[in-house]
Design a protein that fits this description.
It is built from four helices and nine strands. With 275 residues, it is of the alpha+beta class. Strands 4-5-7-8-9-6 form a six-stranded antiparallel sheet. Helix 1 packs parallel to helix 2.
Length: 275
Amino acid sequence: MQTYIVVADAFTRFADKPTLWRYSDMLSALRQAHASDLRGKRFVAGQGVDDLQMDHLYCLALSKGLDAEFKHWRQWRGRPMVDMAACHKHRAENVLITEPLCLETDTFVSDLVLHARNELMQDHLTGEHIQGMVLAEACRQMFLAVTELHCLRDFSPGKRYFVINEMAIRYLAFAFPLPAQVRYRQLSLRKERADRQAIEADIEVIQCDRVAASMRVAFVVFDAAAIGAREAQLARVAVEQCLSQLGQQPEATEAPEATGQEVSPARCHFTHQPA
């Protein structure tokens, strides 16, 4: 059997290959009265096809008697997505990784899973590869999830607060809408004080046995109760500084309307939100 990969419509340019199908094209084929063109082929769900779409296509396929053709449909979706709270997200479509699996001490791996409605894929899909910011966000979610789930057994305040000190990423190869893994290796963990822990880690996005991107990250996990007051104080200082700078700006000698020119919103300055 020839294997075909079904990907989200967002990857139209990438899907223009002999062994790739767009989701909408597969849906149209399965909705036809006869699906004879699909027989004798093997179909696998690829990147960007969400769980509801996967279930829909699978049920349609079975109703057409295509059990053998869709036997491996979920082959690349065997592991559950990581909990949204662990990677600090509020919408399921913005989660990019599966639950981290411990390979050995201080080393974890997750699958990269793209959702067509992910926040980073809505307005910057320029080519066939996965844009770099998606890989950076996947690495960020990885160190958050591994830390939340596996590295804080001796540090469990009611609420934790992550502060990134350094996050450097290198792009080494294009990554495409195909299976990929995110691998995390912890380099150090130091309990600096009772209310904070400092962690350094290396993270890699691997596809087809090649490293597509790597990140070095250093961050500190605080007891949120301890840092909350300090952050609020810094926020107040920032507001005062901005207002002070605003007060030091010279007054305009002529109102824009008096020049006869159209007033652009970008040229207007407000000290409060306009109604």
